[in-house]
Amino acid sequence: MLGRDKICAVAAAFDAESMIQQLEQALGQTGTIELRLDWLADDREIERFLGKLVGRRRRATLIATCRRREAGGRYRGSIAKQLFHLAEAIRVGCAWYDLEIETVRKCPPELTDALLGDGRQLRSAHFFRAMPRDLGRVMGELARGGPDATKIAAHCDSLADARKLLALASQRSTLAAIPMGEVALPARILSLRRANGFAYAPIDVATAPGQTSLADLKGRYRAQGLNSRTRVYGVIGNPIAHSLSPAMQNAGFAARRMNAIYLPFLVRDLSDFLDSVEALGIRGFSVTLPHKERIVKHLDDCDPLAARIGAVNTVVVRAGGRLYGYNTDYVGVLTTLEKRILLRGSRVLIVGAGGAARAVAFALAQAGSAVCVYARRQERAKSLAKAVGGEAIARTGLRREFFDAMVNATPVGMYPAIGNSPLEVRELNCRLVFDTIYRPPVTRLLQLAARRGIETVSGVEMFVAQGTAQWEIWTGDPAPVDAMRKVVISALAREEKSADARIGVKRAIG
Q: Which DSSP string corresponds to 248-259?
């Protein structure tokens, strides 16, 4: 519709040189690029950048945008100056220009025709706070006068809102519908399955809420290849942005050259997500905090072991939209611990009593371990201990007890609160400490254990084991374990390197 590619790279920088660098970077990845002139520092910098475009080979369709602050952009100048910059952008090679509805309302059409007549107009409306109540009215105003194409970008608090916006685009081939916000991110990407789908992807910095970077959109999600036959999977949780499941599962699909995608769903309201499963064509999904126990009552059926555990981390969508649940955390626990200790006869303390803790407890009990449970809420600890024939232990007794292993099955110490630990160093009376958290791979708890000379086990191994088991349940094929593990380890290594660099900068400044 707006260019050769449905993925539109967004170049946004404060100076002309950086903008040119982003443009060059995008040219090798997509044939459609938006130039956010309003992000440049001032009129002079805009003119410098446009001057650098003169004589350059145009291997892509360029869209010039100089959005004023009134419309959610950064440009502080007058409408006359805005139109001047857009006209200059057209003169130096931009085929399209984005003109927001706020400017259209104040500018006679004869003026825009005279100044910008050589370019094609994308008339846009942006709603950064909430979805407009009357999309039909907005669409009518945008279409008045016959622009070449229209765009509605709206913040969506639910998948229902995102679906409503995308449904409007399915009825109008010249409308680009852009759901904004983290909740709407999966729908935003999945819109590319349609012939007139369109998505903006920043090269460097995001220019709207919920954008996915060009590198991730084309690399991790392989979104340029999405079509009506693409199989859709995902992970639901709150929060979810930290999850490495999309990187791992998509690496598996890429290794097997499958037409499938796995997306992160920020789910605050389970019913909103479940109502969207059929509409979005979701064939299976992972479940993480805080929904592992909550999802059970929404299932049509469940694996007997998962039913006993009372928590599900894997769901298959069967014929007729029926939901069937599994728990692969169980597999991850056994795969990880059996390599290090003889579980039968071992005494193991589980910290926590939620969904993850239940999977750990049932796995260890099944393997013949004596299970002990500590949780902040003593009643939940007692309930879980009773379910597996184990023992609930109060925190005051931990210093007097000894265990073969301790397992943290709480989110305490998970990114970004990496300085926290569920236990103190003097409470670690055991031979081995296993933290089910994988981000960071070495948590504060594991650091404390290592300080006492205790063997430690990171949650990375469990994460990969439970994830590859999920992949096999969904696809019916053996998982490419090495490829999936490699991408997780690489991602964690990059994060650690970045964190070390930030610490170094802080020390240098301080």
A: HHHHHHHHTT-S
How would you list the strands of the sheet with 455-457, edge to edge? 391-392, 370-374, 347-351, 403-408, 430-435, 455-457
User: What distances in angstroms separate CA 29 from CA 22, 49, 215, 253, 438, one per listed residue?
Assistant: 11, 21, 9, 21, 32
User: Looking at residue 504, what is its pLDDT?
Assistant: 44
The answer to whether the beta carbons of residues 70 and 126 sit under 8 Å apart is no
Sequence-separated (6 or more) residues with CB below 8 Å from residue 473? 284, 314, 316, 326, 328
Predicted pLDDT at 203: 96
Closest CA to 187 of 175, 197, 173, 172: 197
The residue behind tokens 């846009």 is 124
Give the residue-averaged pLDDT of 279-308: 96
CA gap 96, 283 in Å, rounded: 38
Confidence check: pLDDT of 509 > 80: no
Are 7-212 and 341-464 the same fold in CATH? no
CA distance 107 to 92: 23
The SS3 of residue 148 is coil
Domain ranges of the chain: 7-212, 341-464
Does the pLDDT of residue 502 top 60, yes or no? no
Instruction: Specify the higher pLDDT residue, 340 or 57.
Output: 340
Q: What is the CATH number of domain 341-464?
A: 3.40.50.720
Please, what is the Cα angle at 165 between 119 and 60, to 5 degrees? 30
Question: Class for domain 7-212, per CATH?
Answer: alpha beta
Contact 418, 398 (CB under 8 A): no
Mean pLDDT for the stretch of residues 137-144: 94
User: Has 497 been annotated as catalytic?
Assistant: no
Q: What is the pLDDT of residue 496?
A: 81
Q: What is the mean pLDDT of residues 206-212?
A: 90
Mean pLDDT, rounded, for 29-39:
96
Catalytic residue among 6, 106, 292, 339: 292
Count CA within 13 A, CB hemisphere, residue 214.
27
Distance CA 248, CA 380 (A): 32
C-alpha distances (whole Å) from 481 to each of 82, 251, 252, 358, 441 are 53, 10, 8, 25, 18
Q: Is the pTM of this model over 0.90?
A: yes
Q: State pLDDT tens for residues 385-420.
A: 999 999 999 999 899 999 999 999 999 999 888 999
The pLDDT value given to residue 498: 67
Token pair 């769901």 is at which residue?
A: 315
Sign of CA dihedral 35, 38, 40, 44: positive
Task: Report the DSSP beta bridge partners of residue 328.
Answer: none
